[in-house]
Automatic annotation (TrEMBL):
One of its GO terms (molecular function) is hydrolase activity. The lineage of its organism: Bacteria, Pseudomonadati, Pseudomonadota, Alphaproteobacteria, Sphingomonadales. Pfam families: BLH_phosphatase. This is TIGR01244 family protein. It comes from the Bacteria. InterPro entries: BLH_phosphatase-like, Prot-tyrosine_phosphatase-like. Coiled coil: none annotated. Residues 2-110 form the Beta-lactamase hydrolase-like protein phosphatase-like domain.
Amino acid sequence: MFRKIDDKTFASPQIELSDVAEAQAMGIGMIINNRPEDESPDQTPGAEIEAAAKAAGIAYVAIPVTHAGFSMPQVEAMQAALAEAGDKPVLAYCRSGTRSTLLWALTQARMGMAPDQIAAHAAGAGYDVSPIMPQIDFLAAQAR
């Protein structure tokens, strides 16, 4: 269920409380929730995931992304969360894992990763970043 984007980052569709134990067993150091609360009636509330994560010794951050798109404050928050996690792996989730992967991609571009490398990592995890490639290119060019 957890898809490996790079050596430090995994993306996932909505996780359940039982998935926190799997994340702990994998050595995940932080869970990033990219899903807005009450997006659908069947999603596990972020507060419940946060409590389970903290009980398991895993940091938790909520950076909700709606279908309206991405903003620089979200990219900056993701960059800060990844930095805070240090060398520990991170698990980011949303409804399907796509928004988490796209936010990861924008963050990597802002930090200077080459757009083709970003696209290759995302594709390796089964995600397509082509819808935001102009933004990735823009951020990567600014990082140079």
